[in-house]
Amino acid sequence: MSEASSRVVKLAVIPGDGIGPEVVAEAEKVLDAVVADSGVTFEKTRFSLGAGRFLETGDTLTDEDLDAIRAHDAILLGAVGGQPGDPRLKDANIERGLLLKLRFELDHYVNLRPSKLYPGAPGPLADPGEIDFVVVREGTEGPYVGNGGAIRKGTPHEVANETSVNTAFGVERVVRYAFALAEKRRKRLTLVHKTNVLVHAGAIWKRVVDEVAREHPDVAVDYLHVDAATIFLVTHPSRFDVIVTDNLFGDILTDLAGAVTGGIGLAASGNINPDGAFPSMFEPVHGSAPDIAGQQKADPTAAILSVALLLDHLGLGAQAARVQRAVEEDIASREGTRTTEQTGAAIIARLQA
Amino acid sequence: MSEASSRVVKLAVIPGDGIGPEVVAEAEKVLDAVVADSGVTFEKTRFSLGAGRFLETGDTLTDEDLDAIRAHDAILLGAVGGQPGDPRLKDANIERGLLLKLRFELDHYVNLRPSKLYPGAPGPLADPGEIDFVVVREGTEGPYVGNGGAIRKGTPHEVANETSVNTAFGVERVVRYAFALAEKRRKRLTLVHKTNVLVHAGAIWKRVVDEVAREHPDVAVDYLHVDAATIFLVTHPSRFDVIVTDNLFGDILTDLAGAVTGGIGLAASGNINPDGAFPSMFEPVHGSAPDIAGQQKADPTAAILSVALLLDHLGLGAQAARVQRAVEEDIASREGTRTTEQTGAAIIARLQA
Ligand SMILES: CC(C)[C@H](C(=O)O)[C@@H](O)C(=O)O
Ligand SMILES: CC(C)[C@H](C(=O)O)[C@@H](O)C(=O)O
């Protein structure tokens, strides 16, 4: 056995809630199929986390969970979150207590969200043109930090503050990642912010991008206010190559980007710690969609494309490309409705063809 | 002469920069035409404000300007803002120092932004359906307050904070306005926020909407996270009637809404102080577009529709409806390219037909 053929990857799998388990099941089958003859073995540990676990045990993400997850090389996550308005989940905040906690604790400072309009994908735009860009969303600071609070809560005199925290350290590392990515792509980088209004947060983003840009004279850099960026995403999405932006603007832009490229059933993402200090986490952009859970209605493509991102991150570029190609072929030839499993099976068939 | 026929409205006109003067010129002609036989006289004062004025005098908005403007019944504004990147404007921040200062000082707590897809308007969506909703954007607090700052500015250890301030007083008054508007429309109200992440700011919005909703049992209320709202705006915009949201989310959603309804060349807005303590201000959503300024390329329709909102605000509903109808007829029959003046003239011709 060669060195390469003995590589073992420890993968934490978090199927989660709602459609999470269904789409992750297909993603895992694709993963198993594509690495079958690669000499790489994936050792999987399943973690029961999410609204379901909370309702059973009252736990969202314990220190033991976190330690156990940290001992893995990467994470595959389906989706977490219970039925909206479920009174038993009122104080749970699965989003902050689980999903964001993982992103923050594992220092996933790059939230990587590619958007591509695949031939055959049903998009809402009459004349989309070519769409192929990547949003590099900051993942560990900005308005997501949870800093804030309220006084006189629940009274007519309440004041509730929410503070966006932006550090040169945090902005610079994600901006550097975005420039490096732009170098490997079409060498265009767009900073999206709202510098004319959010002058404090905006200034640090602008300064850091200007500084790092000097080291990349071959990358064409421009800037858009977030409101204008949403316009271009529907009127002229082909203008984008790499977008770098903060946690909240990135959240908004990537849902919109998912919609214009055929729905968030196709949108994959990686929560990446480029330093490798912690395992990176790959997940579809979509949520747990409890309304259609367990009905085999969910499209597993976003989860499967997240596997491609995972493979790429692990240095398994050839395998990533195979998954990517199989998905593109499948999208190009879709007809009628299929179950979650049927879509998974169709993609695996292309993979093995 | 009857009482009504002797009414005088004092109107402050701020043509501003770039295409502002061109579009305001047409808007004024429409205003003059529609009130010609109404018995209402508009006494106009022109204010030279914007990047141009700043470059000439170094002033953005003086206390004297503000006092003079306050003495009016309403304001018509074109657009303000100079050439992006003009080094002489580096420290001006026309947006904060002029536009936002007017909104804040004149307590424009309702930023009213109707979105309608007019028959004949060129939208980017393949299958838009009917689009007819109004965004009620809070105008005086949230992330727009400018609270924040930076330490170790310009160094690798900089920390820049930006604080969103939300008060029960501020949220309640705009939410009440939105519910009253929904009562007069299709009785659907959607709160847009990001309550699962911005827990402090989100909680006060959620609480206030829940409370005011109890007084409006006939209004159907729902909630969307801002990211999901952008998806629906391109995939299912007909689901919206009244959207109520904070200053920043409202900024983002209304540019996107403008794009899906045929471009921000058609999007009008009112910055309203419903209490009447200060003059309300009507302006197109678009900016000053210095790249096409002075070329008669700008579409004055958004400025003209802003006149309709102004007339409505002044209780001149019949006149507002006439402007609205003339614009709709014009949009339905547009062909080829026209100059700014030609579009204005075409709308006036319809008005007088
Ligand atoms: C569920 C939520 C906390 C999350 C976010 O806002 O980041 C989601 O919208 C996403 O984009 O992954
Ligand atoms: C120019 C800018 C300050 C303004 C805003 O953000 O409110 C504009 O985008 C708008 O929507 O009127």
Automatic annotation (TrEMBL), chains A, B:
Isopropylmalate dehydrogenase-like domain boundaries: 10-347
Pfam families assigned: Iso_dh
Marked site: Important for catalysis: Y144, K194
Primary localisation category: cytoplasm
UniProt-annotated location(s): Cytoplasm
Residues annotated for substrate binding in this entry: R103, R113, R137, D227
Reaction(s) this enzyme catalyzes, per UniProt: (2R,3S)-3-isopropylmalate + NAD(+) = 4-methyl-2-oxopentanoate + CO2 + NADH
Recorded superkingdom: Bacteria
Enzyme Commission numbers on file: 1.1.1.85
GO BP term, example: L-leucine biosynthetic process
PROSITE patterns: IDH_IMDH
Binding site for NAD(+): G287, S288, A289, P290, D291, I292, A293, G294, Q295, Q296, K297, A298, D299
Annotated Mg(2+) binding sites: D227, D251, D255
Enzyme class label: oxidoreductase
Key words of the record: Amino-acid biosynthesis, Branched-chain amino acid biosynthesis, Cytoplasm, Leucine biosynthesis, Magnesium, Manganese, Metal-binding, NAD, Oxidoreductase
Gene Ontology molecular-function annotations: 3-isopropylmalate dehydrogenase activity; magnesium ion binding; NAD binding
Subunit structure comment from the entry: Homodimer.
Family statement drawn from the similarity comment of this UniProt entry: Belongs to the isocitrate and isopropylmalate dehydrogenases family. LeuB type 2 subfamily.
Function: Catalyzes the oxidation of 3-carboxy-2-hydroxy-4-methylpentanoate (3-isopropylmalate) to 3-carboxy-4-methyl-2-oxopentanoate. The product decarboxylates to 4-methyl-2 oxopentanoate.
Protein name as annotated: 3-isopropylmalate dehydrogenase
Organism annotation: Microbacterium azadirachtae
